[in-house]
Amino acid sequence: QVQLVETGGGLVQPGGSLRLSCAASGIAFSLCTMGWYRQAPGKERELVARIFPGGTTNYADSVKGRFTISRDISKNTLYLQMISLKPEDTAVYYCKAFVVGTAREYWGRGTQVTVSS
Question: Is residue 18 a contact partner of residue 63, using CB atoms and an 8 Å limit?
């Protein structure tokens, strides 16, 4: 059974930092495109960043230069380092695994990030 568990969310002031983690089990991490998505109240879920099996990354324009996606294949864990956080970054952040070459994708349950003074 595939399970993705996000941790690391919380309340932070504008300009602050957080690091999110996504621990994956039941899946071959190195065969997946892993991504972070977010959904703010009243808005659609959007891609924040993703990392492909070969290590290539891409980011939403709104987070470039502030967020960094990374992974530890030995630990089957995905990370999102967030700096210079803004109120508009407030959302539930979700981890997603897409098994390349298949139609299988899996989602975590999300972790809340709130940026507010």
Answer: no
